[in-house]
C-alpha cells in the first residue's frame, strides 16, 4: 500500500479526492487535513510515502510545507504560475498537477512519484517554457524582495544603504514595467514569476 497524506483547505475537494483515492486498491489516505500546519503534523505522525498538497492554504501554504519536510510531494493547484512551478520543483516537489485533473491521473501520478519519477502537468510545463524573461534590473529586484506590509521606503533604504528617494524610484520603475498599481502588487508579481 502507498500511504498518502492529503492537504487541501477546500473541504469538498479534499473529501472527494480522499474518497476517490480510497477506491484504488494500492492507495491508502492515512490523513486528510485543511492547512499546511496540520499537514506537517500529519506527515510527522503517519510517515506517508507521498503527500498531496494544495498550493494555496491558510496558516501555511504548500510551498512552505515543502521547505519544512523531505517527503515525496505532489502539488495541486488551480492556477500554476511559472515561477511557482519552478519554486516548487526547486523545493523538492516531485509532481505538479491541476486540480481539474481526473482522479485516475492523480492516482497514477502518486504511483509514479512513489516509484521515484516526476510528473508535471503538460500545460503548466508549456507555460513555464514560454515564460517571458524578467524585465526588471537586479537593483529593482533587490528592492522588491524587501517589499512587504511592514517595511516603509526608509526601512528598505536603510537595509540596502540607499536613500528613500532612490528606493521609491526603483519601486516606481518596477511598477511601470510590470503594469502594477501598487508596490505590493509589483512584489507579488515578481514572486509569482520566480524572479525574487
Order of helices and strands: EHEHEHEHEHEHHHHH
What structural category do the secondary elements indicate? Answer: alpha/beta
User: Strand tally, please?
Assistant: 6
Give the terminus-to-terminus CA distance.
40 Å
Low-confidence runs: none
What's the name of the CATH homologous superfamily of the largest domain? Answer: Response regulator
Q: Could you say what the CATH architecture of the largest domain is?
A: 3-Layer(aba) Sandwich
Our estimate of the beta-strand percent is: 15-25%
Here the CATH topology of the largest domain equals Rossmann fold
Overall geometry: elongated
Number of helices: 10
> What would CATH call the class of the largest domain?
Alpha Beta
Q: Report the sheet with the most strands, covering strand number, pairing sense and barrel closure.
A: 6 strands, parallel
- Average of the residue pLDDT scores: 91
Domain HTH luxR-type: 129-194
Protein name: DNA-binding response regulator
InterPro entries: CheY-like_superfamily, Sig_transdc_resp-reg_C-effctor, Sig_transdc_resp-reg_receiver, Tscrpt_reg_LuxR_C, WalR-like
Keywords: DNA-binding, Phosphoprotein
